[in-house]
C-alpha cells in the first residue's frame, strides 16, 4: 500500500521492501527501522493504539509506523532518491521551515540546530502524506486532537535538552511543519 502510494505521489518508480515484526521487549518503546535486515520492529505496547476504538490513537500509531516506513523508503532508494526534483524541493522547503524554529524559554531564545535534526524531515513528511491518504479527516476535523495527543508536561530542563540534543527535535514542531509541508506539496500538485 505505502509503496504504491509513494510511487503515485512522486510519479516515479521507487521500490522498497520491509518486514514488520512485533516485539515484547521492554527495551523498545517506539517503532524502529533496522537497516541491515530491512525490518521495522514495533513494540507490543504501541499495538494497543492501533487496536483502539479511538481514531486519534490509531492515527498516532500510524504516524510512528509511517515515519519508520519513510526511513525504509529513503534508505532503500538512496542515493538516487535525493537527486529527484520533488524530493529536493520538499527537502528545501522543510529546511527553510525548520530553520525558523525557535524556543523561547527562561528569558532566552534558542534556535533549532537543523544539522542535528535533518534526517527526520523526510520520514516525517512521508508519514504525514500517508496519514492524509489513510485518514482523510486528519488535517481538518481531527487535527487539534491529533496534535494535542503529542503534548505532555515537560520541565524547562527537559524541553531545553530535547531542543538542544535530541536528533528528532520537538515532536510538536515536527508534526506542525510536516503538516504544512504536505499542504504545500498538495498545492504544488494542483
Automatic annotation (TrEMBL):
This is Uncharacterized protein. It comes from Lactobacillus helveticus (Lactobacillus suntoryeus). The lineage of its organism: Bacteria, Bacillati, Bacillota, Bacilli, Lactobacillales.
Amino acid at each position: 500500500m505505502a509503496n504504491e502510494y509513494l510511487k503515485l505521489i512522486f510519479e516515479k518508480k521507487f521500490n522498497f521492501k520491509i518486514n514488520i515484526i512485533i516485539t515484547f521487549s521492554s527495551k523498545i518503546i517506539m517503532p524502529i527501522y533496522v537497516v541491515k535486515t530491512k525490518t521495522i520492529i514495533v513494540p507490543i505496547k504501541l499495538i494497543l493504539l492501533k487496536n483502539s476504538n479511538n481514531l486519534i490513537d490509531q492515527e498516532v500509531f500510524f504516524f510512528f509506523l509511517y515515519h519508520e516506513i519513510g526511513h525504509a523508503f529513503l534508505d532503500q532508494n538512496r542515493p538516487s532518491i535525493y537527486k529527484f526534483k520533488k524530493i529536493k524541493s520538499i527537502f528545501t522547503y522543510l529546511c527553510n521551515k525548520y530553520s525558523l524554529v525557535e524556543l523561547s524559554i527562561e528569558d532566552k531564545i534558542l534556535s533549532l540546530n537543523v544539522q542535528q535534526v535533518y534526517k527526520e524531515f523526510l520520514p516525517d513528511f512521508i508519514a504525514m502524506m500517508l496519514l492524509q491518504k489513510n485518514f482523510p479527516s486528519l488535517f481538518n476535523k481531527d487535527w487539534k486532537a491529533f496534535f494535542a495527543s503529542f503534548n505532555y508536561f515537560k520541565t524547562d530542563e527537559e524541553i531545553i535538552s530535547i531542543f538542544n540534543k535530541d536528533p528528532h527535535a520537538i515532536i510538536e514542531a515536527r508534526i506542525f511543519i510536516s503538516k504544512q509541508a504536505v499542504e504545500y506539496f498538495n498545492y504544488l500538485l494542483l
